[in-house]
Amino acid sequence: MQETAGSLKKTPLHGLFKEMGARLVDFAGWELPVQFTSVLDEHRAVREAAGLFDVSHMGEIEVRGPGALALVQRLTCNDAARLVPGRAQYSVLTTERGTFVDDILVYRRGGRDFLLVVNAANTAKDFAWIAPGASGDAEVIDASARFAQLAIQGPRSEAILQECTRIPLAGMKSYHFAEVDVRGVPALVSRTGYTGEDGFEIYLSPGAAVDLYRALIQAGRSLGLKPCGLGARDTLRLEAAMPLYGNDVDDTTTVLEAGLGRLVRFEKGEFAGREALGRQKAAGLDRILAGFDLQERGIARHGHAAIAQGREIGRVTSGTLSPTLKKSIGLAYLPPRLAATGTRFAVAIREREVAATVVPTPFYQRPR
After folding, report:
1. How far is CA 277 from CA 186, 285, 290, in A?
2. 329 and 310 Cβ atoms separated by less than 8 Å
3. Do the beta carbons of residue 193 and residue 88 sit within 8 Å?
């Protein structure tokens, strides 16, 4: 992430964030807050109480019509037919090679109505990938301009959001959603998130975003809610071992290599990449995304080499000093024989080899 310069896209909350004194940076062509107080302070708020994020830069693509399900099924590796209206799933837009066009959320709003939520930097690319597959019985719409998105995350998020809506949130399960009024404004509220904590994502019209943001901050003030930026979002998602497109997954990595085989539903029938993934599964993987922690001082970063017996065996894709675990953690693609828990290797950091050990992921799992 870089300090802002030049002409960048702005979310509806940009002006409010400038008033609040947030530190703004360039992220995927958007001017977004990286922090309000400090990454550590905001990270702890989400783990212990609640944090509020503006994620309005994410893209939204609508797929509608009698052929909507068939189109989503052809383009993604998960089984969208298993969704009933009001349910969502994590999925992947796959290439014919079984690699990532993008990792996405698929919401089924009705029998013939799907909402795909895509990564900000990939919105135009994803739309261009999806739209040509539509025939006369499916319509594909880039609806990103019609949505703002807020994410409230943390153990107290339910209590805080409940102050702003009449729908009983306690009965909403993970990856379920409802289309309801939030402070009198139509919104889609889902029990989803990118932090490893309980929480909700709220999709609403851009013109209503500032008022709702202010209302949530007020409702959560006594419960420890804090505004949060991209810095905490990244450390939180990495502790939960949630991949970041462009770092941990991209069009050179397959869904199986990324350790997301649970998303690949071979039994559903044809989809982009099915044959390639089937061949890879049968032949065995050459590499797999594994979690590790450092045994010495240092922080592994994207691009650092993983070393074993004096030679490079892989590359770090993400790394940070975990605020919750108080140690350096990371993800790296390693040969399967070296990706077993307890295996030792080294990470090259500033021309120094730092001892590392493969550990289970997620690094952090919230108390149930």
Report:
1. 40, 10, 19
2. no
3. no
Q: For 20-35, what is each residue's pLDDT tens digit?
A: 999 999 999 999 999 9
- 30 forms bridges with which residues in the sheet? 9, 27
Q: How far apart are CA 291 and CA 272, in angstroms?
A: 28
**pLDDT, tens digit, for every residue of 298-322?**
999 999 999 999 999 999 999 999 9
Give the three-state DSSP class for 348: strand
Question: What single letter denotes the amino acid at residue 216?
Answer: L
Which value, to the nearest 10 degrees, does the dihedral of the CA atoms of residues 19, 21, 25, 26 take?
Answer: 0
**Torsion angle in degrees (nearest 10) through CA of 30, 33, 34, 39:** -160
Neighbouring CB atoms inside 10 A of 323's CB total 19
Exposure letters 4-15 (e unless 16+ CB within 10 A, then b): beeebebbbbbe
Collapsing DSSP to helix, strand or coil, 36 comes out as coil
Whether the Cβ atoms of residue 167 and residue 180 lie closer than 8 Å to each other: yes
- Assigned token pair, 334: 């390693």
**CB–CB of 107/88 below 8 Å?**
yes
- Reported residue count of the chain is 368
Which residue, chain included where needed, has tokens 């085989």? 261
Its pTM stands at 0.96
Distance between CA atoms of residues 277 and 338, nearest Å: 22
Asked whether the beta carbons of 253 and 287 are under 8 A apart, the reply is: no
52 contacts: CB under 8 Å, gap ≥ 6:
150, 151, 152, 213, 216, 217, 220, 225, 226, 227, 228
Q: Residue 1 has which token pair? A: 């992430």
What's the mean pLDDT when you consider all of the chain? 97
Among residues of the chain, what percentage have pLDDT more than 90? 96
Strand order in the sheet with 100-110: 87-94, 100-110, 113-118, 59-64, 139-142
Tokens of 263: 């998303």
Is 328 in contact with 319 (CB distance < 8 Å)?
Answer: yes
Query: Which of 98, 97, 144, 151 has its CA nearest to residue 118?
Result: 144
> 42 and 231 in contact (C-beta within 8 Å)?
yes
